[in-house]
Amino acid sequence: MALLEVKDLSIIYRTPFGIVNALNDITFNIDKGESLTVVGESGSGKSTLALAIARLLPPNAKYVSGSIIFDNIDLLKLSSDEMRKIRGTGIFMVFQEPATSLNPVFKVKDQLMEAVRIRYEREGNIFDENKAISEIISVLKDVRMPDPELIIERYPHQLSGGQIQRVMIAMGLLMRPKLFIADEPTSALDVTVQAQILRLLKDLKREYGISILFITHDIAVASIIADSVMVLYAGQLMELGSVKSVMHEPKHPYTQALLSSIPRISKTEGKLPIIGGSVPNLLNPPPGCRFHPRCPFRMDICSKAVPNLTKVNDIYVRCFLYGQ
Amino acid sequence: MGLASFLIRRGINMVITVLGVIFIMFIITHIITPNPAVAWAGPHPVPSIVEAITKEYHLNDPVYVQFYYFLLAVIQGNWGEDPMYHQPIIQLIDTYFPRTLELTIAAMIVIIILGILTGAIAAVHKNTPTDYTIRAFYLVTWSMPPFLVAMLLQLAIAYGLKLLPATGLANPLLSPPKLITGMPTVDALIEGDWPYFWSSLRHLILPATALALVAFGIISRLIRNSMIDIAAKPFIRTAIMKGLRERDVVFKHMLRNALIPAITVLALTFASLLAGAVVIEDVFSWTGMGWLLTQALYQQDYPLVMAGTFIVAIGVVIANLVADILYAVVDPRIKLE
Question: Complex ipTM, two decimals?
Answer without folding.
Answer: 0.88
